[in-house]
Amino acid sequence: MEKKLRKGYTTGSCAALAAKAALKMLLQDKIVEEERILTPKGILVAVPILQPTLEENWASCAVEKDGGDDPDVTHGLLIYARVEKIPAGILIDGGLGVGRVTKRGLSVPVGQAAINPVPRKMIAQEVERLLLQYKANFGVKIVISVPKGEEIAKKTFNSRLGIVGGISILGTTGIVEPMSEEALLDTIYVEMKVARENGLRHLILTPGNYGENFIREVLHLDLSQAVVCSNFIGKAIDYGVELQFESILLIGHMGKLVKLAAGIMHTHSKVADGRMEILTAHAALQGATGRLLQELMDCISTDEAVKCLKASGFLEPTMESVMEKVEFHLEHRCGGALKIAAILFSNVHGIVGQTQYAEALLQKAMQIGEKK
To answer: I want to staple 231 with a disulfide (CB 3.0 to 4.6 A). Which of 190, 268, 332, 367 is the partner?
Structure first.
Protein backbone atom coordinates (compact mmCIF):
# COMPACT_ATOMS: atom_id res chain seq x y z
CA MET A 1 0.00 0.00 0.00
CA GLU A 2 1.31 3.46 -0.92
CA LYS A 3 2.31 5.55 2.09
CA LYS A 4 0.11 8.61 2.65
CA LEU A 5 2.26 11.71 2.79
CA ARG A 6 2.15 13.63 6.05
CA LYS A 7 1.10 17.27 6.02
CA GLY A 8 3.03 19.93 7.90
CA TYR A 9 2.22 23.44 9.03
CA THR A 10 3.45 26.83 7.88
CA THR A 11 5.65 29.41 9.57
CA GLY A 12 2.46 31.47 9.84
CA SER A 13 0.77 28.74 11.88
CA CYS A 14 3.87 28.47 14.08
CA ALA A 15 3.81 32.22 14.74
CA ALA A 16 0.10 32.14 15.62
CA LEU A 17 0.56 29.14 17.92
CA ALA A 18 3.50 30.74 19.72
CA ALA A 19 1.70 34.08 20.09
CA LYS A 20 -1.42 32.38 21.46
CA ALA A 21 0.59 30.34 23.97
CA ALA A 22 2.66 33.31 25.13
CA LEU A 23 -0.45 35.44 25.69
CA LYS A 24 -2.18 32.57 27.49
CA MET A 25 0.79 32.37 29.87
CA LEU A 26 0.40 36.08 30.65
CA LEU A 27 -3.34 35.75 31.19
CA GLN A 28 -3.18 32.57 33.28
CA ASP A 29 0.12 33.37 35.03
CA LYS A 30 1.46 29.89 34.39
CA ILE A 31 3.53 28.02 31.81
CA VAL A 32 1.75 26.52 28.79
CA GLU A 33 3.08 23.18 27.54
CA GLU A 34 0.89 22.64 24.46
CA GLU A 35 -1.16 24.88 22.18
CA ARG A 36 -3.57 24.38 19.31
CA ILE A 37 -5.23 26.45 16.59
CA LEU A 38 -7.69 25.83 13.79
CA THR A 39 -5.95 26.77 10.53
CA PRO A 40 -7.69 28.63 7.68
CA LYS A 41 -7.87 25.28 5.88
CA GLY A 42 -10.02 23.95 8.73
CA ILE A 43 -7.36 21.56 10.06
CA LEU A 44 -6.60 21.55 13.79
CA VAL A 45 -2.91 21.81 14.64
CA ALA A 46 -1.66 20.99 18.15
CA VAL A 47 2.02 21.38 19.06
CA PRO A 48 4.31 21.31 22.10
CA ILE A 49 5.42 24.73 23.34
CA LEU A 50 9.19 25.12 23.63
CA GLN A 51 11.37 27.39 25.76
CA PRO A 52 8.51 29.12 27.63
CA THR A 53 9.45 32.22 29.64
CA LEU A 54 7.01 34.10 31.85
CA GLU A 55 7.62 37.49 33.46
CA GLU A 56 5.25 40.04 35.01
CA ASN A 57 4.55 42.06 31.84
CA TRP A 58 5.69 39.75 29.07
CA ALA A 59 5.99 36.13 28.03
CA SER A 60 7.68 34.29 25.19
CA CYS A 61 7.91 30.80 23.73
CA ALA A 62 8.75 28.94 20.54
CA VAL A 63 7.15 26.46 18.14
CA GLU A 64 9.18 24.19 15.86
CA LYS A 65 8.33 24.42 12.16
CA ASP A 66 7.31 21.07 10.69
CA GLY A 67 7.25 20.75 6.90
CA GLY A 68 5.64 17.30 6.94
CA ASP A 69 6.88 14.85 4.30
CA ASP A 70 8.09 17.68 2.08
CA PRO A 71 10.43 19.67 4.35
CA ASP A 72 11.76 22.95 2.96
CA VAL A 73 14.60 25.15 4.23
CA THR A 74 12.49 26.34 7.18
CA HIS A 75 11.81 22.80 8.44
CA GLY A 76 12.97 22.48 12.04
CA LEU A 77 13.35 26.22 12.66
CA LEU A 78 12.15 27.61 15.96
CA ILE A 79 9.58 30.38 15.50
CA TYR A 80 9.37 32.58 18.61
CA ALA A 81 6.69 34.96 19.82
CA ARG A 82 7.21 37.53 22.56
CA VAL A 83 3.99 39.04 23.87
CA GLU A 84 4.25 42.22 25.96
CA LYS A 85 1.48 44.15 27.71
CA ILE A 86 0.70 47.61 26.35
CA PRO A 87 -2.12 49.99 27.30
CA ALA A 88 -4.39 49.09 24.38
CA GLY A 89 -4.54 47.56 20.90
CA ILE A 90 -2.78 44.69 19.14
CA LEU A 91 0.57 45.44 17.50
CA ILE A 92 2.37 42.79 15.42
CA ASP A 93 6.00 43.16 14.37
CA GLY A 94 9.01 41.10 13.39
CA GLY A 95 12.22 40.75 15.36
CA LEU A 96 15.50 38.94 14.85
CA GLY A 97 15.53 36.75 11.75
CA VAL A 98 12.25 38.01 10.28
CA GLY A 99 12.87 39.98 7.09
CA ARG A 100 11.90 43.58 6.33
CA VAL A 101 10.25 44.60 3.08
CA THR A 102 12.27 47.17 1.10
CA LYS A 103 10.60 47.08 -2.32
CA ARG A 104 7.07 47.78 -3.53
CA GLY A 105 4.93 45.10 -5.10
CA LEU A 106 4.60 42.58 -2.29
CA SER A 107 1.51 42.02 -0.15
CA VAL A 108 3.27 43.71 2.78
CA PRO A 109 4.05 47.47 2.66
CA VAL A 110 7.64 48.74 2.47
CA GLY A 111 9.19 49.04 5.90
CA GLN A 112 7.04 46.42 7.59
CA ALA A 113 8.16 43.00 8.80
CA ALA A 114 7.69 40.29 6.18
CA ILE A 115 4.74 38.71 7.94
CA ASN A 116 2.20 38.04 5.22
CA PRO A 117 -1.48 39.06 5.50
CA VAL A 118 -2.91 35.63 6.36
CA PRO A 119 -0.40 34.92 9.18
CA ARG A 120 -0.99 38.45 10.52
CA LYS A 121 -4.72 37.77 10.53
CA MET A 122 -4.23 34.39 12.21
CA ILE A 123 -2.10 35.93 14.96
CA ALA A 124 -4.50 38.83 15.49
CA GLN A 125 -7.57 36.57 15.63
CA GLU A 126 -6.06 34.15 18.16
CA VAL A 127 -4.86 37.00 20.36
CA GLU A 128 -8.09 38.98 20.14
CA ARG A 129 -10.16 35.92 21.12
CA LEU A 130 -8.04 35.38 24.24
CA LEU A 131 -8.13 39.03 25.28
CA LEU A 132 -11.93 39.00 25.00
CA GLN A 133 -12.26 35.63 26.72
CA TYR A 134 -10.25 36.77 29.74
CA LYS A 135 -11.69 40.31 29.68
CA ALA A 136 -8.17 41.70 29.67
CA ASN A 137 -7.75 45.38 30.51
CA PHE A 138 -4.62 45.76 28.39
CA GLY A 139 -3.43 45.41 24.81
CA VAL A 140 -0.41 43.51 23.51
CA LYS A 141 2.64 43.96 21.35
CA ILE A 142 3.62 40.74 19.61
CA VAL A 143 7.11 40.31 18.16
CA ILE A 144 7.80 37.25 16.00
CA SER A 145 11.43 36.21 15.68
CA VAL A 146 13.44 33.41 14.10
CA PRO A 147 17.02 33.39 15.45
CA LYS A 148 18.37 31.41 12.47
CA GLY A 149 16.19 33.26 9.97
CA GLU A 150 18.83 35.51 8.46
CA GLU A 151 21.10 32.55 7.72
CA ILE A 152 18.26 30.48 6.23
CA ALA A 153 17.04 33.43 4.12
CA LYS A 154 20.23 33.17 2.04
CA LYS A 155 18.82 29.93 0.64
CA THR A 156 15.58 31.61 -0.48
CA PHE A 157 14.57 34.23 -3.07
CA ASN A 158 13.97 36.85 -0.38
CA SER A 159 16.88 39.09 -1.36
CA ARG A 160 15.61 39.20 -4.96
CA LEU A 161 12.22 40.25 -3.66
CA GLY A 162 13.66 43.04 -1.57
CA ILE A 163 13.19 41.27 1.78
CA VAL A 164 16.28 41.77 3.93
CA GLY A 165 17.41 40.48 7.29
CA GLY A 166 15.58 37.19 7.48
CA ILE A 167 12.83 34.88 6.29
CA SER A 168 9.19 35.65 5.56
CA ILE A 169 6.38 34.38 7.76
CA LEU A 170 4.15 32.73 5.17
CA GLY A 171 1.08 30.63 4.53
CA THR A 172 -2.36 31.02 2.99
CA THR A 173 -3.98 27.89 4.46
CA GLY A 174 -1.80 27.33 7.53
CA ILE A 175 -0.97 23.85 6.27
CA VAL A 176 2.00 22.59 4.22
CA GLU A 177 0.77 20.09 1.64
CA PRO A 178 3.27 17.36 0.71
CA MET A 179 4.86 18.23 -2.62
CA SER A 180 6.64 15.01 -3.57
CA GLU A 181 6.86 15.33 -7.36
CA GLU A 182 6.08 11.71 -8.12
CA ALA A 183 3.15 11.63 -5.70
CA LEU A 184 1.80 14.92 -7.05
CA LEU A 185 1.97 13.75 -10.64
CA ASP A 186 0.21 10.50 -9.72
CA THR A 187 -2.50 12.48 -7.94
CA ILE A 188 -3.00 14.82 -10.89
CA TYR A 189 -3.24 11.92 -13.32
CA VAL A 190 -5.70 9.97 -11.16
CA GLU A 191 -7.92 13.04 -10.63
CA MET A 192 -7.97 13.74 -14.37
CA LYS A 193 -8.67 10.09 -15.16
CA VAL A 194 -11.59 9.96 -12.72
CA ALA A 195 -13.02 13.16 -14.19
CA ARG A 196 -12.76 11.76 -17.73
CA GLU A 197 -14.28 8.41 -16.81
CA ASN A 198 -17.17 10.23 -15.16
CA GLY A 199 -18.02 11.92 -18.42
CA LEU A 200 -16.10 15.21 -18.30
CA ARG A 201 -14.85 16.09 -21.79
CA HIS A 202 -13.90 19.74 -21.30
CA LEU A 203 -11.34 20.21 -18.52
CA ILE A 204 -10.20 23.27 -16.59
CA LEU A 205 -6.62 23.20 -15.26
CA THR A 206 -5.29 25.60 -12.63
CA PRO A 207 -1.99 25.66 -10.74
CA GLY A 208 -3.35 26.16 -7.21
CA ASN A 209 -5.28 28.13 -4.59
CA TYR A 210 -5.21 31.48 -6.42
CA GLY A 211 -6.63 29.87 -9.53
CA GLU A 212 -9.31 27.95 -7.66
CA ASN A 213 -10.41 31.10 -5.85
CA PHE A 214 -10.56 33.06 -9.12
CA ILE A 215 -12.53 30.31 -10.88
CA ARG A 216 -15.04 30.11 -8.05
CA GLU A 217 -15.36 33.71 -6.87
CA VAL A 218 -14.76 35.74 -10.04
CA LEU A 219 -15.75 33.46 -12.91
CA HIS A 220 -18.42 31.65 -10.86
CA LEU A 221 -17.58 28.31 -12.41
CA ASP A 222 -18.20 24.86 -10.98
CA LEU A 223 -14.92 23.60 -9.51
CA SER A 224 -15.93 20.00 -10.26
CA GLN A 225 -14.72 20.73 -13.82
CA ALA A 226 -11.28 21.79 -12.55
CA VAL A 227 -8.13 19.92 -11.60
CA VAL A 228 -5.23 21.51 -9.73
CA CYS A 229 -2.02 20.75 -11.61
CA SER A 230 0.48 22.65 -9.41
CA ASN A 231 3.57 23.63 -11.42
CA PHE A 232 3.27 20.67 -13.82
CA ILE A 233 1.53 22.41 -16.72
CA GLY A 234 3.22 20.38 -19.43
CA LYS A 235 2.65 17.01 -17.80
CA ALA A 236 -1.01 17.84 -17.15
CA ILE A 237 -1.46 18.72 -20.82
CA ASP A 238 0.20 15.42 -21.75
CA TYR A 239 -2.24 13.60 -19.47
CA GLY A 240 -5.13 15.48 -21.07
CA VAL A 241 -4.06 14.26 -24.50
CA GLU A 242 -3.58 10.69 -23.26
CA LEU A 243 -7.01 10.66 -21.60
CA GLN A 244 -8.61 12.11 -24.76
CA PHE A 245 -10.20 15.25 -23.33
CA GLU A 246 -11.72 17.39 -26.05
CA SER A 247 -10.47 20.66 -24.60
CA ILE A 248 -8.40 22.16 -21.81
CA LEU A 249 -8.90 25.67 -20.45
CA LEU A 250 -5.91 26.73 -18.37
CA ILE A 251 -6.71 29.44 -15.80
CA GLY A 252 -4.04 30.82 -13.52
CA HIS A 253 -2.25 33.77 -11.99
CA MET A 254 0.03 35.46 -14.51
CA GLY A 255 2.94 35.15 -12.09
CA LYS A 256 3.06 31.49 -13.07
CA LEU A 257 1.42 31.27 -16.46
CA VAL A 258 3.29 34.15 -18.13
CA LYS A 259 6.23 31.72 -18.17
CA LEU A 260 4.38 29.70 -20.81
CA ALA A 261 5.20 32.45 -23.30
CA ALA A 262 8.79 31.23 -23.16
CA GLY A 263 7.80 27.57 -23.44
CA ILE A 264 8.37 26.96 -19.72
CA MET A 265 6.04 24.11 -18.85
CA HIS A 266 7.29 23.43 -15.31
CA THR A 267 6.62 26.73 -13.59
CA HIS A 268 8.29 26.30 -10.19
CA SER A 269 10.76 29.13 -9.59
CA LYS A 270 13.54 26.64 -8.82
CA VAL A 271 13.20 25.32 -12.40
CA ALA A 272 12.77 28.59 -14.27
CA ASP A 273 11.57 32.12 -13.70
CA GLY A 274 11.99 34.83 -16.35
CA ARG A 275 8.65 36.55 -15.67
CA MET A 276 10.03 40.08 -15.93
CA GLU A 277 12.30 39.18 -18.82
CA ILE A 278 9.28 37.86 -20.76
CA LEU A 279 7.14 40.93 -20.07
CA THR A 280 10.03 43.27 -20.83
CA ALA A 281 10.82 41.55 -24.13
CA HIS A 282 7.20 41.73 -25.29
CA ALA A 283 6.87 45.35 -24.21
CA ALA A 284 10.00 46.11 -26.22
CA LEU A 285 8.47 44.43 -29.27
CA GLN A 286 5.53 46.82 -28.92
CA GLY A 287 7.81 49.86 -28.88
CA ALA A 288 8.10 50.56 -25.15
CA THR A 289 10.75 53.09 -24.16
CA GLY A 290 13.98 52.23 -22.41
CA ARG A 291 12.74 53.81 -19.19
CA LEU A 292 9.63 51.61 -19.08
CA LEU A 293 11.67 48.53 -19.93
CA GLN A 294 14.00 49.23 -17.03
CA GLU A 295 11.02 49.75 -14.71
CA LEU A 296 9.63 46.37 -15.76
CA MET A 297 12.94 44.62 -15.15
CA ASP A 298 13.06 46.17 -11.68
CA CYS A 299 9.56 44.97 -10.72
CA ILE A 300 9.43 42.21 -8.14
CA SER A 301 5.90 41.00 -8.90
CA THR A 302 3.78 40.67 -12.01
CA ASP A 303 1.03 42.71 -10.33
CA GLU A 304 3.49 45.60 -10.11
CA ALA A 305 4.55 45.04 -13.73
CA VAL A 306 0.91 45.19 -14.87
CA LYS A 307 0.53 48.49 -13.01
CA CYS A 308 3.54 49.91 -14.87
CA LEU A 309 2.29 48.67 -18.24
CA LYS A 310 -1.21 50.00 -17.62
CA ALA A 311 0.05 53.43 -16.58
CA SER A 312 2.13 53.70 -19.75
CA GLY A 313 -0.62 52.48 -22.08
CA PHE A 314 1.32 49.35 -23.05
CA LEU A 315 -0.63 46.71 -21.14
CA GLU A 316 -2.98 45.65 -23.92
CA PRO A 317 -0.45 45.37 -26.78
CA THR A 318 2.14 43.72 -24.52
CA MET A 319 -0.30 41.10 -23.26
CA GLU A 320 -1.60 40.43 -26.78
CA SER A 321 1.97 39.67 -27.80
CA VAL A 322 2.53 37.51 -24.70
CA MET A 323 -0.68 35.55 -25.27
CA GLU A 324 0.24 34.80 -28.89
CA LYS A 325 3.37 33.04 -27.64
CA VAL A 326 1.47 31.32 -24.83
CA GLU A 327 -0.95 29.95 -27.40
CA PHE A 328 1.88 28.87 -29.69
CA HIS A 329 3.60 26.84 -26.95
CA LEU A 330 0.38 25.32 -25.60
CA GLU A 331 -0.71 24.17 -29.04
CA HIS A 332 2.75 22.80 -29.76
CA ARG A 333 2.62 20.80 -26.51
CA CYS A 334 -0.74 19.18 -27.25
CA GLY A 335 0.09 18.63 -30.93
CA GLY A 336 -3.42 19.40 -32.15
CA ALA A 337 -4.91 16.49 -30.20
CA LEU A 338 -7.34 18.78 -28.37
CA LYS A 339 -8.45 22.39 -28.26
CA ILE A 340 -6.50 24.37 -25.68
CA ALA A 341 -6.67 27.92 -24.34
CA ALA A 342 -5.45 30.00 -21.42
CA ILE A 343 -6.68 32.84 -19.23
CA LEU A 344 -4.14 34.80 -17.19
CA PHE A 345 -5.29 36.96 -14.30
CA SER A 346 -3.89 39.26 -11.66
CA ASN A 347 -5.31 39.38 -8.13
CA VAL A 348 -5.22 43.16 -8.38
CA HIS A 349 -6.15 43.80 -12.03
CA GLY A 350 -8.38 40.84 -12.96
CA ILE A 351 -8.05 39.13 -16.36
CA VAL A 352 -5.01 40.52 -18.17
CA GLY A 353 -4.75 38.14 -21.11
CA GLN A 354 -6.43 35.26 -22.89
CA THR A 355 -5.81 33.20 -26.00
CA GLN A 356 -8.18 33.07 -28.96
CA TYR A 357 -10.27 30.05 -27.91
CA ALA A 358 -10.49 31.06 -24.24
CA GLU A 359 -13.86 32.81 -24.47
CA ALA A 360 -15.49 29.89 -26.27
CA LEU A 361 -14.15 27.37 -23.74
CA LEU A 362 -15.20 29.65 -20.88
CA GLN A 363 -18.75 29.73 -22.24
CA LYS A 364 -18.67 25.94 -22.57
CA ALA A 365 -17.63 25.62 -18.90
CA MET A 366 -20.47 27.91 -17.85
CA GLN A 367 -22.99 25.82 -19.79
CA ILE A 368 -21.69 22.63 -18.16
CA GLY A 369 -21.98 24.28 -14.74
CA GLU A 370 -25.58 25.33 -15.39
CA LYS A 371 -26.57 21.75 -16.23
CA LYS A 372 -25.31 20.44 -12.89
So the answer is: 268
Domain boundary among 156, 176, 196: 176
The answer to whether the beta carbons of residues 334 and 328 sit under 8 Å apart is no
CA 87, 140, 45 angle in degrees (round to 5)? 160
Range in 206-215, 242-251, 256-265 the model is least confident about: 206-215
Query: How far is 143 from 93, CA to CA, in rounded Å?
Result: 5
- Say if residues 146 and 156 touch (Cβ distance below 8 Å): no
H helices of 260-301, in order, are 275-285, 290-298
| Of 302, 247, 251, nearest in space to 280 by CA | 302
| CATH code, 54 | 3.30.2110.10
Alpha-carbon distance of 318 to 285, in angstroms, equals: 8
Residue percentage of the chain with pLDDT more than 70: 97
Q: Is 293 helix (H, G, I), strand (E, B) or coil?
A: helix
What does each C-alpha distance from 235 to 224, 262, 278, 308, 324 come to in angstroms?
20, 16, 22, 33, 21
**149 lies in the same domain as 217:** no
Same domain, 259 and 329: yes
Both 168 and 251 in one domain: the answer is no
Give me the number of domains the chain comprises: 2
